[in-house]
Amino acid sequence: MKARPTRPQPRPASSKFAKIDLSAVKTFPIAERESKVHREQLAQPHQPGSSFASFMGSLPHVLKAAELQELVDHILHARQRSRPVIVMMGAHVIKCGLAPIIIDLMRHQVITCVALNGAGAIHDVEMAYWGQTSEEVAEGLQDGSFGMAKETGELLNGAAKEAAATDDMGLGEALGRRIVVDDPPHRQSSILASGYELNVPVTVHVAIGTDIVHQHPSADGAAIGETSFRDFRLFAHHVSGIGDGGVVLNLGSTVILPEVFLKALTVARNLGLPAYDFVTANFDIIQHYRPRVNVVERPTQPHGKGYLFTGHHEIMIPLLAAAIKEKLANR
């Protein structure tokens, strides 16, 4: 029986590609390295029953948690130095039930000016008079009933006409005055009425054709345009004073108010007013181009600082307000 021939063992294949030699790489002690995160910045577990201040102090001192604390300090510092704190708001903030939070900061003299878009004014008015707002758009669109609530159109359009007949009253002031005079059941939940009572300007910036009241037979484009234009001039006046430490917060407006702010700031600087070196912040569920660029980035160059916070309004805005009030009480 013949023995089977043995197969030659394959020789190890060698790569034809050269590799770098790491043996000469230089290292250094970690103590000599700049590190971005340190032990004292770590979060601490929440203790049941502890204070809100304790909760805020337990957050990690990194990234957005640290930036939120910085923003709170900027806001309090602005008010200590009598600098403006301007809040621009999209309508969703009111629909999220946050008007009482904004009003409370107005009462505590934290917010010095509020700017709304047209939809924000509509939701504010409806909540003040009827304690309800927002409708099912898709359903009403089918038969053309969307936005056609008679009382809403007559009230807002009527206030615009009355204000246009005066020499200088803007749309926000006119609506606030109307609510205070009528004294509807839920007046205390109105930002517009609170602004009128507290002497905190609330401006309304309307784009014709974007709001449900523009569909109504009571709509007067000249009156709406005139009174909203007066509010632009009022808003620009307050923006002109934000230099050297003022704060501008944009809460959920993705187009109209970032654009209005950019133009108001341009006017202030064009007139030679020192509207530089201030702080801005944008709060929204999703970060959009205009708030990021026209509120946070461009206006704060070359001096100043801008912040971006992403999250649901119904969580982020009460969190910010509570942090402000907590530090305000301890100063």
Task: Report on this structure.
This protein has 331 residues and is α/β, with parallel strands linked by helices. It is built from 13 helices and six strands. The protein has a six-stranded parallel beta sheet with strand order 3-2-1-4-5-6, sandwiched between helices. Strand 5, helix 12 (289-297) and strand 6 (305-310) form a beta-alpha-beta unit. Helix 2 (63-80) crosses helix 13, helix 4 (99-107) packs parallel to helix 9 and helix 11 (256-270) packs parallel to helix 12 (289-297).
Gist of the model:
This protein has 13 helices and six strands.
Distinctive features:
alpha/beta, 13 helices, single chain, 331 residues
Which sequence of SSEs, written as H and E, runs from N to C? HHEHHEHHHHHEHEHEHEH
- How far is it from the N-terminal to the C-terminal residue, by CA? 103 Å
Outline: elongated
Largest sheet: 6 strands, parallel
* Strands, count: 6
Number of helices: 13
Please give the order of strands in the largest beta sheet.
3-2-1-4-5-6
Structural class: alpha/beta
Strand content: 5-15%
Helix percentage:
40-55%
Radius of gyration: 28 Å
**Arithmetic mean pLDDT:** 94
Q: Spans with pLDDT under 50 lasting ≥5 residues?
A: none
